[in-house]
Amino acid sequence: MSDTVLSEDHGTWVEITLNRPDRLNSFNDEMHGALRAALETAREDGKRAVLLTGAGRGFCAGQDLGDRDPSKMDGLPDLGHTVRTLWGPLVRLIRGMNCPVICAVNGVAAGAGANVALACDMVLASESAKFIQSFAKVGLIPDTGGSWHLPHLLGEARAKGLALTAEPLPAQKAEDWGLIWKCLPDDALLAEARAMAARFAAGPTLGFAQTKACIHAAASNTLDDQLEREAEAMKLCGESADYAEGVAAFLEKRAPRFRGT
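Structure (tokenized):
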């Protein structure tokens, strides 16, 4: 098993750590494979929450450009192939997980690293963290879902500003703008992220999954389509054991014991 990604099993949830700290956790092909394998294992094992973070002084610097250096290649690099076979499938996997995926951004998140974070459901960042759409510095476009997430989360003006200038966006401003959920003191980040993962893992996982799916669908649905999507999700959730338990716990004035079914 590759040591470029570490997985720590917490029973109902898993903590996944990008582990190339000497390269600011930039992705090579080995790390791509290891992260996807870790996420697929979490899905297959029925984990009820996933926490993603980075080792060392930063979260992720995106693609390791040493692996895509035109001066060291026989021909021109096909970066479209890289997006189609590596970054695109990773974003789809993260977005499609049937449980909440939390990202704890513990320092710089640049290029594709920033956009991997934005693909997660909940983004917590340390006060020292920065989000950098660094693609413009090397003549590229925001990939890994960046050209989709930025305008959807921030609007066209701010999306273009971040993408075209490659200016670092401090974590506190990212929270103020609504790009991430919360900015935290550096020494509180992981504790808060782990506590959140544990809370989600003890929650109504089916309802969480349907909530994610409905919110994702809203980006392209009409209101009428979305109302129908809500009806379908509510039917499914209403037939679940978790709904019955939630109502019983509410009426009995006790804490619910959700099973995720």
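Strands lie at 5-9, 13-18, 49-54, 101-105, 108-110, 122-126, 130-132, 169-170, 182-184. The mean pLDDT is 96.
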